[in-house]
Every structure is written in structure tokens, then in C-alpha cells.
Description:
Layout: E1 14-18, H1 23-33, E2 37-42, H2 61-67, E3 70-74, H3 80-89, E4 95-98, H4 104-107, H5 112-118, E5 123-124, H6 137-160, H7 170-177, H8 179-188, E6 205-209, E7 214-218, H9 222-231, H10 246-251, H11 253-264, H12 269-278, E8 283-285, H13 289-292, H14 296-300, E9 304-309, E10 313-318, H15 342-348, H16 353-361
Parallel strand pairs: 1-2, 1-4, 2-3, 4-5
Antiparallel strand pairs: 6-7, 7-8, 9-10
Amino acid sequence: MAETNARGPLDGVKVLDMTEHMAGPFCTMILADMGADVIKLERPGAGDSSRGMGDGTERNPYFRYINRNKKSLTLDYKGARGREIFLRLLPSMDVLVENYRATVMERAGLGWDVLRQANPRLTGEPDGPPTSVGLPICDLGTGMWGAQGVLAALCERHRTGQGQKVECSLLETAVAFSSWTSAGWLVDHEEPVRMGSRHRQNAPYQRFETGDGYMMIGASAQSIWERCARALGHPEWLTDPRFAKSTERRKNRFLLEKEITAVLASAPTAHWTQVLDDAGVPCGPVYNYEQLFSDPQVRHREMVVHADDAELGRVPHIRTPIRMSRSAVAVRRTAPRLGQHTDEILAGLGYAPAQVAELRRERVV
């Protein structure tokens, strides 16, 4: 086996991890696996909500899976002293990753302008929703892993001057994306059962039918569940022994699902998303594609961009979902015709037009 760098390609990179749940910790897990020094900032006395999953121990399989290779710092950064510590820690960081709602950091007085002033070298990492089933997840995922591997290799090359081979595969992506389910099986060897759209470790956290369609509700944490029950007009669920606590809600998830669906059937999706959103309950409509691309937030974020083409006209594209404060991640032109830029590229290499023509005749190009 070839010699490897045990420290990892991101050795020396310092990451402040302010994430919870799945997508954010998964991102910082990757950075940690690559050798970055990841400090996970957690709430004193509570920590990441995934610490309460599984068997309830603070380092259950689900928490361990996406938080390996990290250090944990408990800090209430919203208080005056905690903020002071936070701002002293920040200048030594290379990356800060958070997956709060868009307004949370601003309300805490720690928006991008404040962070940038405290540490001009700070780099942010995007976080986004998971890919829905039905698309080529393994293909898309392997492309994402490949991009990250390239970035990691570039970082190490900057330090060592040496390039390296980066390998990713569909099989390994499939295994890696099995995530919490595999993490649980490796500990208890119990085969997971099919759950449809339901979350294995939380209830209610799934798709529900409404009066005119479907919506997602994610009321996993106890405080969110309490807001959800009240917003749906059933505060008695909070004292019902079947639904009061998370463990009982999981055991009785189908009974709870029936109760909630009966309520949601009385009004359309738009009504319930507004009611629950106003109550601070994570939720959203399940769209068809026409609804998706008409959504005000999708339009606001300009997820559909256009590039002009002499033959095809104005061509729509789905934007790569990354925004950077100083650099453009953009669709600049449509896909090229076969050999469209051959002359240009060869000319850049010093080939004269006659030589290019000869190469064409010989079918070299």
C-alpha cells in the first residue's frame, strides 16, 4: 500500500463547527476526516440534538457517525461572556460552518460583516437540503466527493508541492450515504424496516397529506413538538402519554400520524405551512415542478439562470447552489459543440492554421 499522510490533506486548517442535525455536521465531518482541526461548538448542558437520538446516550451511534474527528466546545455564544470567548476564538479559525436559519446569526450580532471584520481570512461553507429520492443520488454524490477531494488535494499541494491521485466511486458513495442507518446497524445488527418518508429517529418528522396536497413537518426536538401541537390546535397531545415524549412518539408514530393527518385534511397546504411557520415549526410544501420554480424564494435566490447561445437561444440552467462573497460561481456559457474550441486551444499551444487543418485531415482532431 502506498505511503499516506496520516495528518490528512487539510492538516493545519481550523474549522469552527456551529452546526446541528445532519447536513451541517456531515459537511464538517468530511473536513475533519480530511485532517482539519474541527471544533464543534455546542450548547452547554444540551449539545447537538442528535446526542439524544438512538439509545439516548450522548455519544450514540448516530451522533458518533457525523461528529467523528472533532473536538467539542460548549459555549453560549449569545451571552456577553460567551460572545467575548467566541470573538477571541474566531481569529484563529480558517472556516466557520453554521446551518441555522438565515436570521439567527444576525440576531445574535454575529452576521457576516461582524465575522469578516473579526477575521478577514474566514471562509464560509454552504449548507443545503438533502437530495430527494428518485434522482441519481450516487452519481451526484460521487461528483461532490470528487470535487471535495480535488480541493483537498490542492490544499495539500499548496503545502507540500506534490500532487496526488483522487479516487471516488459510486459504491463507496452509496455506503457513505447510508449514514445513520448503517451507523445503527454496525452497533446493533438489527435490519432497519422501510419507513417511507418517515424519519427513523424522530416523530413527527415526515410528509403529511393536507386538504389539497402534501407538506413536510419536522417537529423532532421537544420544544418544536410542543409548538407544533399547539399550532395544530391540540395542546392535549402534550400530556397524552402516547405523544408527550420523543420515545413514546416514535413508538406510536402511526397513531400520531393519523391524528395529525386528520387535522391537516381540513385546510390546504398553504394554510398549514403559514400556521406552522408562524409558530416556529420547520415545515414546507411538497411541490410539483411548476410550483417549485414559481416559489418566491427559489426566484429570489435566482436558482434558474440563463446563458445565450447562437444556435439554441436563451438557455435556462439550474445554478450550482454556491454563493461566494467575492468570487462568481456562475453559468457563463452553454455546453460546446463537438470540437467548437479546437482551433482556439491549439492556437494557444502554438499550432498554425495549416497544421490544425492537417491534423483535421488526419482525424487527429
